[in-house]
Amino acid sequence: MTDPAAAGRPAPVASDASPATLERLTDLFQAAPLAVLTGAGISTDSGIPDYRGAGSPPRTPMSITQFMRDPAYRRRFWAGARVGALRAAGVTPNAGHRALARFEAAGLTNGVITQNVDNLHRLAGSQRVIELHGNGGVIRCTEHGHRFTRDEVLGWFDDLNPGFAERNAAAEIAPDGDAIVGDTDTVTAPSCPECGSILRPDVVYFGEFVPKPVFEAAEALVAGAGGLLLIGTSLAVNTGIRLVHRAQLREIPIAVINRGPTAVDARDSVTVRVEGGAAETLAALEPLLAGG
Description:
By secondary structure, the protein is α/β, with parallel strands linked by helices. It folds into two domains: 19-47 and 93-133 and 209-289, Rossmann fold (3-Layer(aba) Sandwich); 64-90 and 138-203, SIR2/SIRT2 'Small Domain'. Helix content is 35%, strand content 17%. It contains ten helices and eleven strands. The chain has helices at residues 19-28, 64-69, 71-88, 95-105, 120-124, 150-160, 164-167, 212-223, 238-250, 278-289; strands at 34-38, 109-114, 129-131, 134-141, 147-149, 172-173, 179-180, 199-203, 227-231, 254-258, 270-275. Strands 3-2-1-9-10-11 form a six-stranded parallel β-sheet, sandwiched between helices. The protein has a three-stranded antiparallel β-sheet with strand order 5-4-8. A two-stranded antiparallel sheet has the order 6-7. A hairpin with a 5-residue loop joins strand 4 (134-141) and strand 5. The model is unreliable at 1-15 and 52-58 (pLDDT under 50).
């Protein structure tokens, strides 16, 4: 039988994590280094809920317009961030994050482009990390760009709202890692100690765009790669699709590892499709790439 890939056509899409599929995924690394794009699905195994994964309840994320214009939204945000931090203390990189860091160190990948703001790739040891949506651990003021760590600002929240976090410690945790806290009318939101302006996480909110230099850095990873590996993302966000388009224009192979459907499953350019969790698949892949 003629190999479709050898005949100039993409190989059939695989939809399971069988040994044969893992072998085909391993073969993709012959085009190394690969560019990697990750989404929330790689962090679910670290205990961070997913907005769009199977079984996730409907959510309406806060927009930047709501955050900036309505003090009630800011009170709710900071209350949720403070309570959520009680749980986040135990969140650490999982086997998937650590495997990607080792792939980069071995020259199998040229870094990680991530849609996540949880900083877990850096904590796992990845050196070249392009954070499309920013980093939730950095807080900046909206007037002059003064920057602080999230822990600093949450400490100020405690000073302004003594005992609040402890009283609401059992609140549900949302997919962004913050808690869903009900009564926040009496909460005082922290402000910039330098200029008194509104503080916000240094992330891309719904209603904002990925900064041009950040997207250009992500494009550069794809431009320097022999293939694109999509991990734990449904590709519901336009920025991810744009990077897939760049890979398609270069006619490099594309592989998908995800629980549940993605926006590119039906595309001919996807040569390998693994239906499965990121951590378990990458952990199974690593010894194969090492020849073990």
